[in-house]
Every structure is written in structure tokens, then in C-alpha cells.
Amino acid sequence: MTAPSPLWQRCGLLAMFFLVLANATAATARTWNSADGKFLADGVFLSADFHQATIQLADQSTLQIPLNKFCLADQEFIDDALEKSDADRAAKFNQTQPLSRASDPVQPTAAGAWMSAVDPPQLQFAIPADVNLQFPIFTSALRVAEAGPAIAFPASPSPYCFHVGSTTVGDLRTGATQTLKNAPRRFNAVSISPDGAQAAFVVSPQANAPRVELLVWDVASDAQKLSLPLTTVDLQNPAIEAIEHVRGDQILLKERAASHFQSLPLDGGPARQLRHPSLKEHDSFAISPGGKYLLLYSQQAKVVSIHDVTTDQTQATLPIPPALHRPNAAAPIAKSSAISVSANGRYLALFLSRNNQLELAIYDLAMGKLTAHQPIAEPTEIETISWFGEDAGCMVNGTHYFSRETAQLLFHQHPLFSKEERETRFVAADKRFFLDRRVLHVVRVGPLEIERRSENYALGRAQVDLRLPPLTTLVDESPPQAWQVAPGSQPVAAPSLPTPVDELSTSAPLPSQGDATEQVLFSLCGSDAGRIIYQTTAPDYRDKLIRFDLHSGDSASYLAPDAVRSVVRDVSPSGRFALLSLTEAKFGYRSHQDCMRLDVFDADTMQPHVSFRTGAESERDRKSIVWGGLLDDEHAAALTADGVFRCWTLPDCQLHYSLQLPFTPSCVVLSRRRDRIAFLDKIADGVAIVDAASGTPVGRLNGPFVAREPSPFDYRISPDLRLSAGAFSADGKTLWVKCSLPTRGANEVLSGWNLETGQTLPRFNLPRFSIGRLLGGDDGDLYCASAYNGPHIFRFVGGDIEKSQSMEAADKNSKNRQTFVCGRRFWHLAGDKFVPAKFPAP
User: Fold this and answer.
1) Do 432 and 425 form a contact (C-beta atoms < 8 A)?
2) 787-813, pLDDT tens digit by residue?
């Protein structure tokens, strides 16, 4: 792992807020080392802020060391100390300086022709982690705003919030709540003042009010303090785009249909309309943390105007940077724009969309300069923006974290499930909230966590990788080899050696889960050596991977971490290794879609052996795994969604070769000796065959399912139908494939190729039968196992599709009706034992 960059130094906050007193930590000396392993100091950890740590030396003197200078272990020690003392530090700060106001606001200073527009917040406070605010739910007369988020926050940083559904004010410092029981039952919009003393409601005739008016509410007494009439475009049910308390003495309000802001003084004076460039429907705006400035982006003016709310004058403008891909083109700014100011008031983030490209521009409001400008691939729509570490960067939609210094994506998380949970935002430099039904949770997201996730994202690791077996190597971005079949290449596979199947039969039962219920097995895979790997569910609902030996009945297991799903992909022919994919569980469903991780396990112990990824997290759409397998004990392979087949050597996980296939396959077929690999997709694509050892293309065959005689199914066989299963014969000279006809009920068609001559085989129809897997037997027979209406198995004697037998393979009432291949034969579960499928002699 590389040394973390100075992100700690970019997360400024009040130093006293992050002090860690010696009596809050173990006051024992330790040796402190640098990121490159060099000695820094011997001493006791006294305190730390976001910039540096203070170490007390043996002679009682102190030494300040920048946090980014420490090695990872020391950074983790400091972060752990900050986390453990978080609540004590916040309580001490709030007791000594309860909701203090900044005494000396930043004065505008000249920077050339630019006057500083930094407007810091007016309040200073500390929010501890692990605060939970529980809001009441009224079963009748539920108070709901016409539109807007579930939680309302002031525009200026504040420890207070407002739960719209229950009209409840919450204090994030203590977790205390106060429900305004006398407040309006329905309202169009609501605002809470930064000090939590007042709430403001916009009510209208649609909400049973006599007219459109603003009701100012005193929170402490739960009583109306003031009523102000509003002039709106919509006289019945106005849509309020923004309502905020600013400067402690006025409220700014913007109706969606109006082109200007209204300023309403809280002393009862007349409302006034702010003079600034007219805002259109899709223009964007933000309010500075101190409430002094309106920052407005006008699509028509193509500048960001900084408007002083107090003087009602435009102080300055910021030009829009040229488009990144077409800098000389006069491209209009599209609708999906957003603007936000950092929590300390110094930086501005402007999201632009033009030329079908989203861009992020970062400005320094102290200097009036553009400091960073980058294209953005995702997200495509901007819903919410909040800043972490004060000025380290901004979080968009609760999922994407962008750097303030570079405007580049640091990392992204999987989107949360419900709309309320997606409203997550930072309420302090290292505190983020999320809403789970009616409980608001505050969690700590420290700078070390941001740094780790950013580093993992840059190296191709996902967030879930932090809880899984460590990755053996980084992603290799070498370009793939182009597809080209060399003249004289031979697609015929090597003949297989017979397997003594009788030695694999066993009377040993499956490992018990400790109760009498029938186990449900998933992802069964078997090896030629008689080892089976399967997945089941543990009593605590975690995934459990089990290895079972058909020779001895011996078993071993691996219990996946909580909220991690697993899939068994393959077992090596020798049975020594198993190939799995461990991935994050999404919303409780069992799915391995979009997985880019391959985990090789030692099958003897079922412990992780090596792990690697097929691509970086940002390449999920292209590098997710379609198929994965073990060619032998020393080579793993995978097909990804971009149509590239890759092979890695084990155990160093180095890329052996990568090949760009002529189409994107949906099915992969290994020969019996695993020396040839066939790739299938649509009938029109035919089959692409590759030498497994070198990755060299050896064949491209077309034209399956060509009828030798007219058939009533001819008109249903389309070139766009997919070849969804296949099998090599034991002698390696034949490749069978199947496709499903788009008819009522299951109808499968078998065909294939003679690999020596390239000629297609006769086709054969199986009505009302759904084939899940094909297998070429040692005896030269072709076996077909059903996918849904089984376990039912067909046997084609000698590979002749005109000579068939069928058998029912298991109890129809069993939960485990799937079949799998082990020792080159189909097996199924009978009760609690595995048994092979046996046909009578033809």
C-alpha cells in the first residue's frame, strides 16, 4: 500500500474540536515511524487535529508531526484514538462554547481586481458520532410538505434539522427532539433557522390557508410568532424552490415559477425583490454558509454572479470555463446543472452539462480563480451536494466523492435503497447522516477512511474488498491481443482420459447444519478428482461454502462475512483449488451480477489462497465477469463484459494473456482436457475456439442448425437466437451446442460441428424439454440435463441424436433438484447423499 497523500491536511476544522487529551487514551509511549519506515519519535500521543499530531517526548517537550508523515499503523492508531474520544470531545466543546458565533467574520480583501467573496458560517459547534434522532409518526393527520426532502437543514452549517413528516426539530449535538404539535398540518415548504430558534412555513389555500403566506414559528413555545403575506405566481399552490433563514434577520424565498428571490425581513417590514439577473427554470443557485451571498448561475448570462444579499448588489462574476472536448464551440449549457459552496465558504463547485458531457469546475472564492476543471462520467444527474472535510471535496447524491483540489472522482459507493436514505449528506467535516425510516443516524467518516477508499478506488479495489481476503495484485491494464486465426490452426481438442467413476460413489451423508430442515444447495461444481464445492445458507443467514469429497466423505467450509454474497464458479480438475467470487450483497438479494472479483480457495482447507480483480471499480460496466474458470492448478481465466478473455498465472496472479474475442459471448465451453475453449453467443456468430495454454485463436466455425431436410421449425430458427450450452466429445473431435426456440413451452434444438472437417451435425428437436447443461461422456455418449423440469437427463448413445434414452434423476419433491458434473458424469442429490446418474446398457 502506498503512503496516503496529504488528504488529512485538506480536512480543516476547529483544532480544539479534534483535541485528544492524554487521559482519554492510553498514556503509554510508542515508537512513531514515517510512511517509508524511518524513525520519527518515541513518545506519548497527546492530541491531534486534521493537520498534525502532538507527541510528548521523554524530556516532557512536545513535537508536532504532520499526519501524512506517519506510517499507516500510526495513522490507524491516531484515527482510532479520535474515534474513541469523539463523544467526549464534542461534549466538552459544546459545554464550553454552546452554539458560539464567529466573532470576526472574514473581511473582503483585494486580490487584483477581485474582492474576496468568502463568507464563513456564523455558528461554531461540535456534532458527535453515533447520534440517533428518532422522530414520531402520527397515524392520522400526517404533516407532509407538498414537495421536498424528508429532512430539512439550514443553508448555513448548523446542528439543527427539521423532520418534515412529523414537524419535529432535532439537535444533532445531543439527539434531543421537539415536535411542533401546533404547527400547520400541511404546508408547501419549511425552513429552520441555524440556531434552531425559529421555523418558517409557507402555507397556501391548497393547504387550507386563507391565502399564500409565511408563518414564522417560535420553536421553544411552539407558537406562531409572525405572519407575512407572500406575492406568488401561483396563488393556490405555489412550488417553493428555496426558503432559507439568512443573517439572522431575514428569510430568502424563491418560487419555482418566479424569476427572482424575495427577501422577507423578520421584523415585519415589507418584502422586497432582489435585483439580480433573471433566473430561468433550469438555472442553479446556492447560498453562502454565512448567508451573505447568493451565488447564481444563469444559463443566459453564462457566468456565476455573486450577489450581496445585504446591499442587494452584484459584487463579482465568475466566467464559465470553455468546454473540455470542444473548447472553441459555442455550446449552450444544458439543464442538469448544480452549484454548491463549501462549508467554510471558500470554494464553489459548479456542475455543467454540455455536448452530452458532464463537467465539474471548482473555484476559489478568496482569489476569484478557477482551480480545477474535469469531465465526469457519473452520476448523470445531480440531486444533492454536501462537502466533507470542510474543503476536501464534495459528496454528490450520497454516492460519489469528488476532490476539491483536482475535481476528479475519489471513489463512489453503491446507491442506497430508499429515497430517504439517498438524502444522506455531511453535517460536519467528518460526520454524515442517513435516514432509516424515521430514525436519523450520524456516523463518523474520518479522513483516514476517505483516504483508504480513494486509494482502493484508484487501485481497482471496491469498498467491499476491505472486508474480504486481501487482493494479491493490482489490475493489469495491458491491451488485449486482436482476434486472428493463424492458417493451419487445429480446433480439435485432445482426447480425454477415462475416469474411474465407481470409485467416486460414497455413502457418506452431507455435513449437517445442526437442524432437521433440508439444506438448499446452490452453485454446485465438481472436479474430475471427485471433489464438490457448493454453497448453502448458514443459520445466521450468511453464505457458507462447503467442500465435500466423494472418495471419503470428508468436508471443509468457509463462512462468508456478513452482507457478502458468494458464487462458486469452478473447481480445478485435480480438485486442489476452487474458484469463487465474493461480492457485496445488494438489498438482501443473492446476486453476482457486476462482480469483478475472483477468489481462489485452497479446497483442502477452504481458506483463501489468492484473490484478484478483473478491473477497477470505475470500469464495472466493461470488466464485470461473465464467466470464470480454472484451466488447471496454475491458471485461472475469466471472460468479461467487454468481450475480452483473460488468463492469469497462479499464485502470483500475473496476466498471462488477454484476447479480444470477435463477439461478446454469453456461454463458455471447456474441452474435457481443458486445452480448448469454445465461446458461444448468437447463431449468426457461430463459435470461436481458442487454445487455452497460449490464448491463440484456433478456429471460427459458422452455420449450425442448417437443416438437411425441411422441418416445421425452420421458420423459428433465427440468426439472433443464442447458443446457450455446449459440450466437447471425449475424443475432442465433436462440439455439440443447443439453442431454445421461441415457442410456447420448452423446445430445444441440438446441433454442432465435426471439428476435424468443420461440417455441421444434423439437428435434433427436444419438445417440452429445457436443457441446462450438455456433457460428453467417456463412452462417447452425449448427455443433456434439464434446467427447470428435472432433474431429467437425456442420453444420446454414441453421440447419435437419433438414439436417445431418458431418466428421472431425483425426487420431485426435493428442494435440491439440480444436477451437476463431477468425475465427468452427472450427479444429483438423493436425500442427504450425492448419487451418480446411471443408465441401463443400450
Assistant:
1) yes
2) 554 557 778 776 666 666 777 655 555
